[in-house]
Amino acid sequence: FSPTEAETAVYNQVSAVLEEAHGILAELQSYNGAGQEIREAIQNPGDLALQERAWNAVCPLVAKLKRFYEFSLRLENALRSLLEALTSPPYAPMQHLEREQALAKQFAEILHFTLSFDELKMTNPAIQNDFSYYRRTISRNRLNNQQLEAENEVNNEMANRMSLFYAEATPMLKTLSNATTKFVSENKTLPIEDTTDCLSTMACVCRVMLETPEYRCRFTNTDTMLFCMRVMVGVIILYDHVHPVGAFAKTSKIDMKGCIKVLKEQPSNSVEGLLNALRYTTRHLNDDSTSKQIRALLQ
Fold first, then answer.
1. Which residue among 27, 196, 214, 272 is least crowded, i.e. fewest CB within 10 A of its CB?
2. Euclidean distance between CA atoms 257 and 298, whole angstroms
3. In this structure, are residues 199 and 235 in contact, taking their beta carbons and an 8 Å threshold?
């Protein structure tokens, strides 16, 4: 998809963020943590050499975690620019998605990255352990009036913000959900339907591509299938956060039964993270308006 002249400014801004996204995922994928060093330091509190070894192992990892957190803020700005472009008057959401296909594709790529990042984070307990150890060490040294060099890199205020970010099961998705909710609340003149219709249309496109054999046979590899599934789940979650009654109600413009069925037809190892995202990061799944059938499908 080549951007039109009108799309170029936003497209270039988002492209720069997406280029960085590949490196972030690769770094997270190879993140092994300092579990061994931390265990030895905790078991031998009097051994200064082991304390130093653990600290030296953790500091570069925390610098990495800071980079991931700062990237989430850039991702938030990119999403905001895309939402503005894809919902601005006078066009309806469907017209926007047809006219600005390059931006719609970037929106999909942001969601694909977000769910990929969160799946990796969910299955890597080392992230929380490393960061907790870092904070405990800094607190202990502060009590002893020692200032550590690493604090210049991640000071107390930054550590607090990072702590809130990594405490979330799906931190990137939470960042995007908050950003979408904020976008809607700040744009009072924009009908909320313009945003939710844009999201529900994308969910519908993904579902149709996944469940229709003639489209699905064009997917040459499993990565394309995964891309479609992640984007579908991503827009469902954003819709559920922004729409007053959410994605699971009868009046929702998203065919939740169809979307969940499509996911459940795939091998469980490739979709379990996505089903968990629907179970645990949506807002309205447990509302009274959600049918028992849909809840049972997500059991």
1. 214
2. 10
3. yes
